[in-house]
Amino acid sequence: MRTIAEFEAAARERLDPAHYDYFAGGAQDEITLRENETAFQRLRLLPRVLRGGDKRDLSLTLLGAPSSMPILVAPTAFHRLAHPDGELATARAAARAGTIMIVSMAATTAIEDIAAAAPDLGLWFQLYLQPDLEFTEAIVRRAENAGVRAFVVTVDSPVLGRRERDDRNAFHDLPPGLAVENLRDIGENRSGGTASHVRDIVMSALNWDHIAWLRSKTKLPVLIKGVLHAEDARLAVHHGVAGIVVSNHGGRQLDTVAATIDVLPEIAAAVGGAVPVLLDGGIRRGTDVVKALALGADAVGVGRPVVWGLAAGGREGVTQVLELLREDFDQALALCGGRRPADLTPDQVRR
Ligand SMILES: Cc1cc2nc3c(=O)[nH]c(=O)nc-3n(C[C@H](O)[C@H](O)[C@H](O)COP(=O)(O)O)c2cc1C
Ligand SMILES: O=C(O)C(=O)c1ccccc1
């Protein structure tokens, strides 16, 4: 398979249609879901020429963590719905690719087991803060003890978006045998596992004080994921976050919000290099990665493409997806006259 679209088609054939819809779907009319991709397609590149050199180097260091390429695994829930090996397969593939995996708090495999399966993997942990801060702290300690290197707090989900495909399919529960393992066995009445718990895990009270609270509870870097407004990016830097993920949750939260690539320039300007800026949403081609880096991202995350690889072929499928994106990016970088990710500049992108 040569493209992410082919992996998606293969995944669709293998998955229960309701599960495919859960992974593929977005909020309401899915305008933002589509816009994330079409916004990349609207942008035109201006390559530089006569800049060749011996070798390209795609590697970088993000908050002290090395990555072989500026393409990270974005946090997505429920990998064991996509393949029986679930997050273990994803983690092994990410480790083999030498990239960073951001594990979802709503993973169907415990963070300890993921870390043990891929000891060399750079693991970050995505958090939905809980109203019960003691419970949240217990999860933070679990993740730290498992060896995660950063926390990524998702801030675009005071409530869960309205996904009409899930309503239509009445997909509200994980099948028997699957559970949200990171929410098991801690806190009162939190046995984990069902979608009713899952919906409860987002917190509408989340505010900047919670970010300060989390920073006081861990020495690890704290990033926030789901920033679209430049003023929030400024506030994030002011509040001492270690990094910002420009994200609209893959079009799954508020429909008709802007495509991430369209707001990246203003956010990069607001941050002014103070902290790393990541972007996710709609990355399907090497040229998408080039455009995001040129417009100010230090790295990008991929959500659905990883799920399609997992569903299509387990660990090997995820490896193929990550390598496909790596090669595609490497070639696009070369054709733009770049040898390293940092060579790309905003003047190389036109609307
Ligand atoms: C099936 C699915 C589950 C997701 N689960 C989470 C999650 O648990 N936590 C989170 O912060 N983001 C979650 N996201 C959002 C992703 O981290 C990411 O923002 C988005 O998928 C990027 O868009 P892309 O799928 O076009 O690459 C999920 C996305 C999908 C598609
Ligand atoms: O489906 C999602 O996008 C998501 O973020 C989520 C939130 C809570 C539980 C499971 C997934």
From TrEMBL:
Sequence positions that bind FMN: 75-77, 104, 126, 154, 225, 247, 280-284, 303-304
Active site: H249
Pfam families linked to this entry: FMN_dh (PF01070)
Cellular component GO terms, alphabetical: cytoplasm
Cofactor dependency: FMN
Alphabetized UniProt keyword annotations: Flavoprotein, FMN, Oxidoreductase
Matches recorded under CDD domains: alpha_hydroxyacid_oxid_FMN (cd02809)
Binding site for glyoxylate: Y22, Y128, R163, H249, R252
Domain (FMN hydroxy acid dehydrogenase): residue spans on this chain: 1-351
A GO MF term: oxidoreductase activity
Claim: Transmembrane is one of the keywords in the record: no
Family membership noted in the UniProt record: Belongs to the FMN-dependent alpha-hydroxy acid dehydrogenase family.
Protein name stated in the entry: (S)-2-hydroxy-acid oxidase
Organism listed in the record: Amycolatopsis vancoresmycina DSM 44592
Phylogenetic lineage: Bacteria, Bacillati, Actinomycetota, Actinomycetes, Pseudonocardiales
